[in-house]
Amino acid sequence: MVQMEWYLVLSTFMMFAGVYGFFTRRNLLTMLISIELILNSVDINFAVFNRFLFPEQLEGVFFTIFAIGVSAAETAVAIAIIINIYRNMKNIQVRNLDKIKEE
Amino acid sequence: MEYTLLLLILPLFSFLVLGLLGNYMKPKVAGFIGTLSLVGITIVSYFTAYNYFAAGRNADGVFPTLIPYNWEWLPFGKLSIDMGVMLDPISVMMLVVISTISLMVHIYSLGYMKGETGFQRYYAFISLFTMSMLGLVVATNIFQMYIFWELVGVSSYLLIGFYYTKPAAIAASKKAFIVTRFADLGFLIGILIYGFYVGTFSFTPDTARLISAGAMIPLALSLMFVGGAGKSAMFPLHIWLPDAMEGPTPVSALIHAATMVVAGVFLVARMFPLFIDFAPEVLPWIAYIGAFTALYAAAVACVQSDIKRVLAFSTISQIGFMMVALGVSTSIDPNNGGLGYMASMFHLFTHAMFKALLFLGAGSIIHAVHSNEMSAMGGLRRYMPVTHITFLIACLAIAGIWPLSGFFSKDEILAACFNFNPLMGWTMTAIAGMTAFYMFRLYYCIFWGKENKELHEAHTPKESPLSMTLPLIILAAITCVAGFIPFGKFVSSNGTAYHIHIDATTAAISLVVAVCSIALATLVYARSKQPIADTLATRFAGLHKAAYNRFYIDKVWIFITKQIIFRCISTPIAWFDKHIIDGFFNMCGKCTAYLSKKIKWLQDSHIQHYCIWFLAGTVLLTIILLIF
Amino acid sequence: MDIQTIIFIILAAIIGVCSILAITTRRILRSATFLLFVLFATAGIYFQLNYSFLGAVQLLIYAGGITILYVFSILLTSSDGDRAEPLKSKKMIIGLLSTFAGLGVCIYVIVKHKFTEPVFQMGELNIRTIGHALMGTEKYQYLLPFEVISLLLLACIVGGIMIARKR
Amino acid sequence: MCNILILFVVIPLVMMLGLWASRSLCQVKVVMVSGASLLLALSIYIVFNYIGLRNAGNDAEMLYTSSIMWYEPLNICFSLGVDGISVVMILLSSIIVFTGVFASWRLKPMTKEYFLWYTLLTVGVYGFFISIDLFTMFMFYEVALIPMFLLIGVWGSGRKEYSAMKLTLMLMGGSALILIGILSIYYGAGASTMNITELSQIEIPTNIQHTFFPLLFLGFGILGALFPFHTWSPDGHASAPTAVSMLHAGVLMKLGGYGCFRIAMYLMPEGLAMWGEVFLILTTISVVYGAFSACVQTDLKYINAYSSVSHCGLVLFALLMMTRTSCTGAIMQMLSHGLMTALFFALIGMMYGRTHTRDIREMSGLMKIMPCLAVCYVIAGLANLGLPGFSGFAAEMTIFVGSFENTDTFHRVCTIIATCSIVITAVYILRTVGKFLYGEVNNPEFLQLTDASWDEKVAVFTLIVCVAGLGLAPLWASDLISTSVEPIISQFIK
């Protein structure tokens, strides 16, 4: 049987991959992808804790479901914004974004 | 004796009036007020002297020490500075000397200073000086003496710098003040030691305390002597006095010949009982310093060409005599080793008179020829008979010719020296001879010798007005008769009456030496051509030059002040302050600015970077939490 | 080594490799694709945990919906081949350092921490239970969050349209 | 609250209101003069009343005490009270504030604002001297510091921004140390009170005293221009406008000495015993160092600023000698130096206003052109070098006699080194006077200049009269101070 810790380690790994991506990538969309990784890793944790530690209850599952919903919402809005930015600036690199402040 | 307070109030009052309102009154009025107050002071001091000595001796056969006034001025816990008036033989004697000379100078200045700008200021300053000097001599304790000592110093500073537009006068006044101040530092520390160990600033402390203080008393007294040496121009602190001649000549007569410069002698005399009983080992050193100073100054005086400089060095030399006389005293009993004290005071008295006369005479000459240099003079006897005669009397007196006053006092000094040590006696006799020589060199160069015809034709010298000659005549008269005053009856080391008897041998020796010296001077300088002097000057060119330059002592002092104090201490300190200390604080500021510039990139408005720091910080905190 | 473990290892390998590739690859479309794989693998994890519903949701929404959104937006915004510029080494090092430090700390904590005894109870979570919990208003029932989420989604739809609309 | 002391804070505040409301320059001056005169009159009244109360046998340590709880959780009170030391300090402040108003009579741009800040500074100074609660004191101390920055930075001359920044930063650094020190006293004494008189009854643990005494002393010492933290003073004084220099050197620097004595030494005797000698070395250096530095300066204000370093060093020096007489002398020196240095700065400011230079090499013969100011400068100089008859002498002699009572060899040596400063003082004073007052006029433009106007005469003569008054009759001040020094000194003389 797989130990709970293995799952946790896996999710942690995924989370930090996302973190690293968030730190280093310049492209807004890639940064968003990194955020998805982070959220995903958190979802795994919810599910794992629910299954292993509190199997009678369902909070973890529901939080995962809601989190997936929220992330979907967030992605939709974020992509809308990104498209808007792209439309204005023909570019979605982070370093160009300081122009937004000036306008 | 309550009226003695007038001695301080009168001149203070005239100083305040002249100082504050002087600009609003005519010069003549100012001079009149000053002189009038001095007349008042003179009357009071003569009256005091008469009353004091007429009151007679007490049961112990001494004149009692009277303290009509003594107020606590500033208490320091157990100690306190008092202000008051104390009368004893020497202070009364000094009162007479100061008021006489000061009155003469006041009258003389009416003529001499006529038309000078700042006439009112001049009178204000000499009033201030008179007050301080009187306060000094009647001081009831050492601290009051110090206070007036400082005031005397400052009035001397103000008067030397009277012609404040002349750079030489400014430099001289500065030098005088700073050198004496330097010496006063010793005086002050001496007072502090004395006050602490003896528990009082008074002149008559508790004997038990003195004994228990042990070695501190000689130390304190020596330091006080340093102060006295500064004021009285003892070697090597004498350098200010010749320069102080930049002041108006009457001031030189009053301050730098008759009164202030003998304050050091007065100080030693005042502390004499303590010196004798608790620091007898210090006294010979005073004598040695005095003797060396006398010798040095006499040597320098022989070659100076500025007449006031000659007189200045002569003053230094004569004060050296007084110091020697005090120093050679070996006991409090005037009949047995304590003669010097009386001799010193006597010489102080007579010297004040004839030296003031000399200076006033010199002032009269300067007034006539408008120069201090001997080269501008010569042959003046025809133009200025009164000045000539009085000057001659003074020269004879200082040379020690019977029956003028200088003979008597110098004789006592020499007798005291012979008692102490024959070598000292012979040295002082030789110096007395030198005195006669340089004084007559001066005399001949002024009144006989080679006349500066061109100058005298362009501007014929004429006798000074009555206001100037009158003081000369009065002082000459005093000089003539002062020797016959039974001085020992009034002042002696233990207060008992001492009968002055002329020691025939000493008197004969000194007379012979004096006459020989005068003859020598006559031989060398009396003619209009002076071949011997020129030969000597060329033969011993190095020595002559050295003596003319006062053996380069001034150079040493300039080196010390300019090179050491300014160049080697002050400038580096200022540099240190500006660059190291200030630099350090500026560096702190710059480092802060630099650091903030360096870490500015942390705040680069990139969210990603903030996130990195956020994560790093969180991780760090977690690690810290895990560790502790 | 039972079958569960083997499946887990395969899934973990996919997740690990693909998540790293997703954030390191230069081409943004590839990165989206790798994300898709990660999401699939995550769904696998859920299935393994016997949360089939969760896995289905994951597949439907994430892999099916969101990824497609990404692909669309990438296609809309990418202009010149989408090559991400090379990273500055200094920044990468700092990012790497803090990431590894964070990773290390988290893993250390996970390994060290004493959880209450984990018990793996096999058993499918049936849909009826989920439906009741989602629609109930009792304790441990989630109608309110459900409604809130739906409202949020609605707001997002409106907002997305508002923002992305051409002016 | 019917405490007369509160008036010292209220009057300046009312003055500020009046200034705010006034519409013309004339009104501003009326407000300032009447306010300053009222303060002066009040402080003279306080002095006499205080002496009267003392003579009537009131021997409490502090008089006119009152206390209002300010912030209950920390036991911070608005406690007022004065002893002889603070009374003379209040008098000093009033004299200088009064003369400062006249010295800045013709200050031009933004006169109203200038006086507003000036009055705020006054609030801080008075508040510091009348309060006996540590926190309240600290608050007023800060109130006094901040206006300084603006007064120098806006109305100053020369490198004013640099100087204002330097001064404020260094003094702020000092006040940070003071805050730490105050908190250490407060918590060391059990966090029950901030009242000084009550704190003095409580034994603060020895290790706390040993650790925090130097911080507290240094914090106040920076304000008192302790070597090597004095460099704000020359730059600050040189750049400040006349009245600010006067108030700063005259009163604000005294806050340092006062704080050292009243707070650091009084409340931490153990710390004093441990650190006294270290600080004594620093103060001795200050005394001599300041004097030597002054010898080669060429800017009049720098000369006076370094002279202040030397004289304020003497204040701290005397305090650290720890005898009753020397501490009395220290307070007298504060009083005396405050008056003298204010006089100096006033004169320098007036001359600078005419010649537009402060470099003594560029001036000469001013005695001819402006005899009144020049004579006053000479008088100030003589007073500064300790001429009997002026306050400096009485103060310095009290210090030296007092210091000599400390029989320890180390202290003796320090005393003798410090006495040397009187000679060096003479050197730089006479050098300055000789260079720029005496001699022939070297700049023909100077011949057009005028002598003192009436307002300047008011300022200068008031100060001279005070300096001479204190110098001629030092007994009253010395009496007033020494009785109040007694309880403080008994803390550290066991």
Q: What does this protein structure show overall?
A:
- The complex is a heterotetramer of chains A (103), B (628), C (167) and D (494).
- Chain A has 103 residues and is an all-alpha fold.
- The model of chain A has no long low-confidence stretch (mean pLDDT 83).
- Chain B is mainly alpha-helical.
- In chain B, helix 3 packs antiparallel against helix 4.
- The model of chain B has no long low-confidence stretch (mean pLDDT 83).
- Chain C has six helices and no strands.
- Chain D has one domain.
- By secondary structure, chain D is mainly alpha-helical.
- A two-stranded antiparallel ribbon of chain D has the order 1-2.
- In chain D, helix 13 packs antiparallel against helix 15.
- At the A-C interface, helix 1, helix 2 and helix 3 of A face helix 1, helix 2, helix 3, helix 4 and helix 5 of C.
How do the helices and strands line up, and which of them pair or pack?
The complex is a heterotetramer of chains A (103), B (628), C (167) and D (494).
Chain B: H1 6-21, H2 27-54, E1 66-76, E2 79-87, H3 89-112, H4 119-137, H5 142-160, H6 167-198, H7 207-213, H8 216-231, H9 240-243, H10 249-258, H11 263-270, H12 272-278, H13 283-301, H14 307-327, H15 339-369, H16 385-399, H17 405-420, H18 422-447, H19 453-458, H20 466-482, H21 487-490, H22 504-525, H23 531-539, H24 541-548, H25 553-598, H26 607-627
Helix pairs in contact in B: 1-2, 1-4, 2-3, 2-4, 3-4, 3-10, 3-15, 3-20, 4-5, 5-6, 6-8, 8-11, 10-15, 13-14, 13-18, 14-15, 14-17, 14-18, 15-16, 15-17, 15-20, 16-18, 16-20, 17-18, 17-22, 18-22, 23-24
Chain C: H1 3-24, H2 28-48, H3 52-77, H4 89-112, H5 127-135, H6 143-164
Helix pairs in contact in C: 1-2, 2-3
Chain D: H1 7-21, H2 25-55, E1 63-71, E2 76-82, H3 84-103, H4 111-130, H5 134-155, H6 160-188, H7 196-199, H8 206-223, H9 232-239, H10 242-267, H11 269-295, H12 300-321, H13 324-355, H14 366-369, H15 371-384, H16 391-404, H17 409-419, H18 421-436, H19 454-472, H20 475-492
Antiparallel strand pairs in D: 1-2
